[in-house]
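1st attempt posting a full record on here, be nice pls
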Amino acid sequence: MKKNTAYIFLSGFFILFIALIIIFGREEKIPELKERSKEISNSTEWLNTKAAVEGLRAKLRANPDDKKTKLNLALAYIQESRITGNHAYYDKASLQLIDEILRKDENNFDAVCAKATLLLSQHHFTEALVEGKRAVTLNPYSAFGYGILTDANVELGNYEEAILAADKMNSIRPDLRSYSRISYLREIFGDNIGARDAMKHAVESGIPGLEQTEWCRVYYGKLFEQTGDLAHAQEQYLTSLNDRPDYAYALAGLGRIDKAKGNYHQAIDYFTKGKIVLADYSFSEELAELYDETNQKSKAEQELNEALQLLGANSKSESQNIHGHYADRELALLYLKKGDSELALKHALLECNRRPANIDVNQALAWVYYQRKEMKEANKCIDVSLKTNSKNPVLLYRAGLIKAGNGYLNEGIALMNEALNINPFLDSRLKREGMQYLASR
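the predicted structure (as tokens):
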């Protein structure tokens, strides 16, 4: 009897032990929320986010098969990735949750859309396009699926298909998301005024202070900035900072304005603040240029290395099976600034092989070829970049340099003058590249 009692006791203890492992094992598998940096942690939004996420995690601990809760947690992490720049952690966390849903319910429309959103943020545009088509098939009456198709087609250079998708999206639900996409397409096709008008509608459709609204407001300001209207651009950036204090992209906007005016030390302060708030390689890239302009070469090199490290930490190579960010276009331009044209060309070609019709990708490859003095190849790529009649002044000025370098002097000078007429505050180093041609006329 005693032996049986002991056996029952031990068996019961063992079962309880296994149950505890399962319960706590499940808790450990639910991705947790990471603390924000102190600069963006003192807000009601952060307190609300923490409370909401902990509530979702508690629900999942109680019911690990709750698909709706799992999806909401994945979406919260996708948004947190945008706010903090911690893509490496939150992309993995979101993908884990989304894939768990799709393994059991492969036709879950919301999960398909969430996965496509994540793929877009990671620059996996071909895969995102597949998921977008799948989403539209599952629910042709949702605007969200057409937004995915718009973004994926834009990035792949399928601009006519992107227009059709954006028009459909706007007909279903004209809101911040649809207006912002219309703005981007108008910009691509050279309608800068129309692009501003659409982005203004996007801002007015959003709630002031929310990250999505302030992203649109900052882009609205950038559209003014690109056409040399620094006063209106500055107004938008300051409004954004008033509605969302320490918003990193608004700080960067003010930094660019000071850079354009030659106030380099003030610009350095803005980008340094932005860098503290958000882990984005572009802040280090801008700082590298500013330190170079102020003859602080060691700091410039340090910032370039930090930018490369940030991109490298989140990027993926062709041999990896797990998802990560494709960042070859950005890496190409950074390596070019470091003077390593071989690595620049390698990454630019990788990106162009993935997206041969995209105008921005071809501009990057053209610029790499130009710096390598391979003018014929540069000319081929820049012609692709000009196919939509974009009026981006940086594109036009680079195109002018490449045309002039290929012996098409009149066409090159005309393009450079057009760029300067659109935005006389172009980067000073870029303008210096064309002085030899412009001085001759």
